[in-house]
Design goal:
Length: 429
């Protein structure tokens, strides 16, 4: 078990590093081609994108990984019990997006240029859902290599599409360019799905009985998925409300639309991705922890679970601490190196120490999911979202620009991390 955990972690770390680098290249290409204004527009609709992706998956990929890892069920039938539910949810969400897109664009985001990009989300979500479900099957089996290869393929395809497509759409306007960027996820996710199918065993056969949904499997999957997706949904709601509250309150306080879009683009497009760069490491550890902790916790091996979680947190800090120090001391070096800009230096110096807590949040949340404590993850997300939203509203009224958002982010990260740590300790006593 120990060797498998270490092997899984190493594979995910290498793959995570490659995909993180590819992701950074994608962001560099995108930010340099579309500029601060285009990046700001993209970051405006990204919370909406994340919200609908979260709802569309309904926590079912996590449920599938956990149940497959326990190895007590017909895994093929389990998977085909989950897929119909996901497709029904996706159809409902597509209809909702088509109905609310005009209101969301014009009345909530106060930016009519976001309309077509919001519509594009409806096209993307079925592909991300199928990709996530397929990936989670391999996670449960602790087969991390297919996940890594599919992720790399996805990013390479997306990068190629952007290099070709953005220069073509730019003359047509930034509105259509950002819409194209959202739609590029269709082909990249499709490439990821095809790669995952290639890793299915040669003797992998689907019988008629495997296609018949099992009510017990569905009920068990939903009992895990609903609290999980509720927690993620609540977090996404806060993220979704972020640009809406920020824009509305700052406009009321006297700031211009161009200032808000530009500074929000700098913070969300330059600073946060750079600060969260080490998260590829913590995410790899979290993904490797889920099946291992799930299996050991079901057996009642709490001491083994404690050791694995401590290892996960220790590995996260091993990378997170040096990164924090570097981001704190020489933020301008990294901004210039990656984005060819010095915008956001002050934001980075304030947020760098806070992100140290963020790096250990993922292993804690993943461990709670693995132990069947998704309700605690939901509670922590609720607490964090309320804290962040209330602080964002209050601090934005103080006429301190984007620093109100920075305060809200910082307090949210600290509150959620310590709450999750408390619940992990409680689960293992």
């Amino acid at each position: 078990m120990k060797e498998k955990f270490i092997k899984s972690t190493i594979i995910l770390l290498i793959g995570g590093l490659i995909t993180k680098l590819l992701g950074m290249i994608i962001k560099i290409v995108m930010s340099r081609l579309i500029g601060a204004e285009g990046l700001g527009l993209y970051m405006m609709i990204l919370p909406t994108f994340s919200l609908f992706i979260t709802i569309s998956q309904f926590g079912l990929p996590v449920a599938l990984s956990k149940l497959v890892a326990e190895d007590t069920k017909n895994n093929k039938r389990l998977m085909f019990s989950i897929i119909p539910i996901s497709l029904i949810i996706n159809i409902i969400l597509i209809l909702i997006i088509l109905l609310i897109a005009p209101y969301l664009s014009n009345s909530l985001l106060h930016n009519k240029n976001t309309y077509f990009s919001i519509l594009a989300i409806a096209v993307v979500i079925p592909f991300t859902t199928i990709s996530s479900i397929t990936r989670s099957y391999f996670f449960g089996k602790q087969q991390m290599f297919p996940h890594v290869i599919s992720n790399i393929t996805e990013d390479v395809v997306r990068l190629i599409i952007m290099l070709i497509g953005i220069p073509f759409f730019l003359p047509k306007g930034i509105t259509y360019t950002v819409c194209f960027i959202v739609l590029s996820n269709v082909l990249s996710e499709l490439a990821s799905i095809l790669v995952l199918f290639l890793f299915l065993p040669k003797n992998f056969k689907i019988k008629k009985r495997d296609l018949i949904p099992n009510k017990t499997y569905i009920k068990e999957s939903l009992s895990i998925g609903i609290p999980n997706t509720t927690g993620r949904f609540i977090g996404s709601i806060g993220y979704f409300l972020e640009p809406i509250i920020l824009t509305s309150v700052l406009l009321y306080s006297g700031y211009s639309q161009s200032f808000i879009t530009r500074e929000y683009g700098i913070l969300s497009g330059y600073v946060m991705p750079l600060l969260l760069l080490p998260s590829f490491f913590t995410m790899a550890i979290s993904q490797a922890l889920l099946p291992v902790v799930s299996k050991e916790y079901v057996k009642g091996n709490n001491n083994s679970v404690k050791r694995k979680i401590k290892q996960g947190i220790g590995f996260s800090l091993l990378v997170g601490l040096p990164a924090t120090i570097l981001f704190l001391i020489i933020p301008e070096f990294f901004l210039s190196l990656i984005y060819h800009t010095n915008l956001g230096v002050d934001y980075m110096r304030i947020l760098a120490p806070i992100c140290l807590f963020q790096y250990i949040q993922a292993p804690l949340s993943s461990s709670l999911d693995a132990m069947g404590k998704s309700k605690d993850v939901m509670a922590s997300a609720t607490l964090g979202m309320i804290t962040r939203t209330v602080l964002l509203f209050i601090c934005s009224l103080l006429k301190i620009g984007l620093y109100g958002l920075i305060i809200a982010i910082g307090v949210n990260v600290i509150v959620v991390t310590f709450y999750s740590l408390k619940k992990v300790r409680k689960a293992l006593t």
